[in-house]
Amino acid sequence: MQILIVEDDRPLARGLQTALGKQGYAVNHVENGKDCLHVVATEAPDIIILDLGLPDMDGLKVLQQIRSQSSSLPVILLTARDSIDDKVAGLDCGADDYLAKPFEMTELFARLRVLERRLSTVKSTLIILGNVTLDTTTQAVTFEGQQLELSRKEYMLLKNLMENTGKVLTRATLETRLYSWGEEVCSNALEVHIHHLRKKLGADFIKTVRGVGYKVNQA
Length: 219
Ligand code: CA
Known about the structure:
The protein is an alpha/beta fold. The protein is 42% helix and 21% strand. A five-stranded parallel β-sheet has the order 2-1-3-4-5, with helices on both faces. It has a four-stranded antiparallel β-sheet with strand order 6-7-8-9, with helices on one face. The protein has a three-stranded antiparallel β-sheet with strand order 10-12-11. The chain is elongated and about 50 Å long.
């Protein structure tokens, strides 16, 4: 999942970036509405966390323009103003969810999981495929009943594949969902993670679609 944070409060943005990065999300950050709209048009983030009070544009205007480009891109609004009017205006403009500052990170994580499930072909927090289970709430993965130790990237890679069972995910898609801007990535990093996952899950669970990407199939 690639998350774009649109927030001019730098300490808050940095805190979000760190916390979400630890959860395994690829997180990018811009500080104003104009840059947000540019990224939406060019990079196709998966989820946007949008502050309403931006230096150059009203957040609701930004949201309206996002909606004119993409009707389904999930947007969570952040606001310092915890008023019913703001909430209603935000939802009327097409926000998917709304958090008033200050908020608990755990609450944001829970809201993100809801949006991720909406994007996924899987509607449950527990994904079971053959002898592999992945629990998106506890982030636990088991193989043949045994809990596996996975790195953050391995977990996110597997989660992306299992949430899109039967669909091929291209290398480019997986890379944008796994890595933030500016993150140092070796050209074969993805293959290395796949290699490690295959050692833990058996060689056949993740299929290579030559020249395109990877997929997992319904058992
Ligand atoms: Ca602000």
